[in-house]
Fold this protein.
Amino acid sequence: MSRDKAADPRLHYQRRQRVLDALGEGLLLLPTAPLALRNGDVHHEFRPGSDFHYLTGFPEPEALLAAWRTKDGKHRTVLFVRPRDKEREIWDGHRSGTEGALREFGVDQAHSWGELWQTLPALVAAHERLFVRLGANSRFDQKLMELFANNAMKHRKAQAPMHPILQDPTPAIAACRLRKDAAEVALMRRAAAITAAGHCAAMRFAATGRYEYEVQAQLELTFRAQGSVRNGYQSIVASGPNACILHYHENDRRMRSGELLLIDAGAESGGYTGDVTRTFPVSGKFSASQRRVYQVVLRAQLAGIRAACTGARFDAPHKACIRELTKGLVQLGVLKGSVAQLIKQNQFRPFYMHGTSHWLGRDVHDCGAYNDQGGVPIQLAPGMILTVEPGLYFAPRDRRVPKELRGIGIRIEDDVYITTRGNEVLTAAAPKSIVEIERLMALR
Ligand code: CA
């Protein structure tokens, strides 16, 4: 049985209804993610398309959702799925088949994947508008173009248009996904809890002389042992100077005494992912210089979290972080001048080169607009989940930075759920104050 199976007919019906109501009259066509060949006849691990899975809960590859609103204000759903196949199931595992799709996923009709291009022409011809995203899957696009051409040929005498009006449904789906429903928040809590547990395990395991990949294995062992099917993204386990490489993935360095270890990793569970960064001393005790930089980043992160509340703009946490980081850079002797002036001139940029927040949910960089149509950052509202992740990165040979701070890279990241009252830090179980970290690491 697929680990991504999430059959909940009522929930998925409601989500489809919401998306279709936002889109209006027309036919929604949404394929799941395509299978990707790794080499020879071996595929990359399959993960259902996020939008497709959000609207169906269906876990298997080679599947497509077709749905449209009916006159009574409800909607109809057709699912195309791989058929039962005794021979293939011996090799690849269980399939729901059309029977399973009908029985467990609450769709009105189910067809075999092999019948897709025989069944779609009539469905497409019955609608004046088609909600489909082009450009994501060239094979699918090509087949759809052929379908348009064939349909037009059939109706040539009636001067039918070559194809229906096309509209990308992605923004409408993204708008729904931006504000998490109760089921999603429950899954996010679980992913966040597993993620925090993994970071705690990494802190307890890290030690001088160990390799980064050993700590990664310990962290991911905890993820798997607690029910996470996969990571939400590649784990970053960056010791010493590697912490200054933002998307470091080699994870093959041996850790030395006196260094910091930066870990950015998230467990995916139930289709949702955590996204947490913690930075801690390999030896279990912060040095005086590390402590000074760490306090600045932590102050910035706490200010960023306080700024993330209902009604605030999306960039409010970033602004709060920038202010604290710039103040800190002056205290650390990296920058000189008035804080207000330094902020205006973006003087923090060489040491803080990334944004503070992104949406989080099914995808680590989850869908949803950051700005309104006029380019103004959108207002935070209950149900949204975002990261708050300031950092400071002092490259090993950066002469602008006092010598004792060079080679220090620190980021602290939590997952923040916006509520009616303010917010809730979903990943609070991963220690981040100096006292908490040193206390946990002393237990090794
Ligand atoms: Ca991250």
Summary: Residues 182-205 form the longest helix (24 residues). The radius of gyration is 25 Å. The chain is about 35% helix and 15% strand. The chain has a mean pLDDT of 96.
